[in-house]
Design goal:
By secondary structure, the protein is α/β, with parallel strands linked by helices. It contains six helices and nine strands; from the N terminus they run ααβαβαββαβββαββ. Helix 1 packs parallel to helix 4. The longest helix is centred in the N-terminal third of the chain and has 18 residues. The protein is globular, with a radius of gyration of 15 Å.
């Protein structure tokens, strides 16, 4: 995990350049349709702050966190709210959020830590709250391009999440990568409900 955070601290500006203006509206809106106006959202690993800003602009209450100090600094400036520097494992909120948005973020955890973090995410949700999360679509787990990744297919994720019975998979879909030149990469998108 430390290498992954180092990667984002070192490459923050380049990462933001590649992600901040990517159009995620179809996925963002699919998530927001499951919430009510003004609901509380946790942007869990907010990166550039792109999604936080969109949710704020739509009138939602947003708490944003990231593990990279440099991304927190840049995302705070971009969104106009303070982005909290925090590791996923440090989440200890209880029944606080209507929705948790974990877009391409918790995929940097190894499976044993990921299970614990998803349990913490479940605890942080109000009853009937929803989680959106996404993973690269494959069975790979390990270091790729300087960062740690845990990938899933729909079948491997179903098996994995079975250990957290309070969460159910409400919806999933496969998309291509929306960043320029990355369209051949596939992503597993998931909506989990408490």
């Amino acid at each position: 995990m430390d290498h992954t955070i180092d990667y984002y601290n070192y490459n923050a500006e380049n990462f933001i350049e590649n992600t901040q203006n990517v159009d995620m509206r179809p996925t963002q809106d699919k998530f927001l349709q499951l919430l009510n106006a003004g609901d509380f959202i946790l942007d869990f690993g907010c990166g550039s702050g792109r999604d936080t800003k969109y949710f704020l602009d739509q009138g939602y209450q947003v708490t944003a966190i990231d593990g990279s100090a440099e991304l927190c600094r840049l995302a705070s400036a971009f969104t106009g709210i303070e982005v909290k520097e925090m590791l996923f494992q440090e989440l200890d909120d209880m029944s606080t959020y209507d929705g948790i948005w974990a877009c391409s973020s918790i995929l940097h955890l190894p499976k044993n830590e990921l299970l614990l973090v998803i349990r913490k995410m479940s605890d942080a949700l109000k009853s009937t709250g929803v989680i959106y999360t996404s993973f690269k679509y494959s069975d790979f787990e390990g270091v790729r391009n300087g960062r740690y990744f845990t990938d899933f297919t729909e079948d491997s994720f179903k098996e994995f999440i079975a250990e957290i019975p309070e969460l159910t998979i409400e919806d999933y879909w496969i998309t291509g990568d929306v960043r320029p030149g990355r369209g051949d990469e596939r992503w597993l998108n998931l909506i989990l409900r408490k």
